[in-house]
Amino acid sequence: METSKKDIKKIFEPIGADFVERLWKESWTYIKTVVDVVREPVLILDKDFRVMAANESFYRTFQVEPKDTEKRIVYELGNGQWNIPGLRKLLEDILPQNTFFKGFEVIHEFPFIGRKVIILNARQIHFKEGAATGLFPPTILLAMEDVTDIMVVAETLAGHANQLESKLAQRTQKLEIHIGKLENEIDQLKKRP
Questions:
Q1: Rounded to the nearest 10 degrees, what angle do helices 19-37 and 5-12 cross at?
Q2: DSSP letter (8 states) at residue 50
């Protein structure tokens, strides 16, 4: 059974009419503070996937301003780089199905910062079942990890490994040829009287 805001206000009315509002403000300050100290870029989204807030790391990483980010739907940010069908499906499943996702990879050419490989993780902020669940608006945390440099290193290492493997195969083939020649020479030496 879903508790309406009207019912919730009745429950908390003896405490004070503005209790719910104060509680949300305190909770929001807490959520925002935690998000602000995270090194990775993070967006806080509402139930309509509108950006409620972003941390400093998000603004610095993507070289955008709060005025171009906050109160905008995540799919409309920048040049629409977040309007990805797979991401949309994952985000839209979080609230109704109470799910989360980890490790969704986005490869995109971003304005100003170039090609990036970003790993996304998202989860709804949960509250314990009961009266408190209806107090706060549904909120999603969308965290991002820039793995571009790691991917470049991995590609470089894979390239070096392929080169080494190719050189090793060539040298092995040459050795096999030389061994074959030596075996022939040994066989001919054995046949001499």
A1: 110
A2: B
- C-alpha separations of 139 from 91, 120, 126 in Å: 11, 16, 8
Residues in the chain: 193
Number of other residues whose CB lies within 10 A of the CB of residue 27:
16
In tens, the pLDDT along 6-17 reads 655 565 555 665
**How far apart, in Å, are the Cα atoms of 126 and each of 30, 49, 139, 175, 184?**
14, 16, 8, 65, 77
Nearest partner of 74 among 89, 106, 101, 52, judged by Cα: 52
**Contact status, residue 83 vs residue 76, Cβ threshold 8 Å:** yes
Range scoring the smallest mean pLDDT among 5-19, 69-83, 117-131, 136-150: 5-19
Query: In this predicted structure, what is the pLDDT of residue 144?
Result: 92
The rounded distance, in Å, linking the Cα atoms of 182 and 13 is: 98
Residue 106 pLDDT > 60: yes
CA dist., res. 84 & res. 63, Å (int): 20
CATH code for residues 5-146: 3.30.450.20
